[in-house]
Write a structure and sequence with these properties.
The chain has 109 residues and is mainly alpha-helical. It is built from four helices and two strands.
Length: 109
């Protein structure tokens, strides 16, 4: 399995399966279907990097993130994830994943 190494030493594992919907999006859609409120609350932890060692969790920020996610409504959340997962965006982002860790990409971890 291939990896991307980020500047903070994290490794992101990926496997190019060729065609079809990435498994990660299947799970995200399943989580939104199962409990949209819990999905947004749980997503706030990695989204803001609160899962990193020594991170100070801001409950106010998590609540704000949850509220914004809940305001989009179920159809907006579900069909946005569906469209994003089924659309090939490689032409818009011609970055070779193997080179990603060597680039300075703003606030990417």
């Amino acid at each position: 399995m291939s990896t991307i190494n980020t500047r903070d030493g994290s490794q992101i594992y990926y496997k190019d399966w060729g065609t079809g919907q990435p498994v990660v999006f299947s799970q995200i859609r399943a989580n939104v279907l199962a409990d949209r409120s819990k999905f947004w609350k749980d997503l706030s932890i990695p989204f803001y990097g609160f899962n990193r060692p020594g991170a100070k969790v801001s409950e106010g920020l998590r609540e704000s993130f949850w509220l914004q996610g809940m305001m989009c409504g179920f159809p907006g959340a579900y069909f946005c994830i569906k469209a994003f997962s089924e659309t090939d965006l490689t032409e818009d982002h011609p970055v070779d994943l193997g080179e990603l860790s060597d680039r300075k990409c703003g606030n990417l971890p």
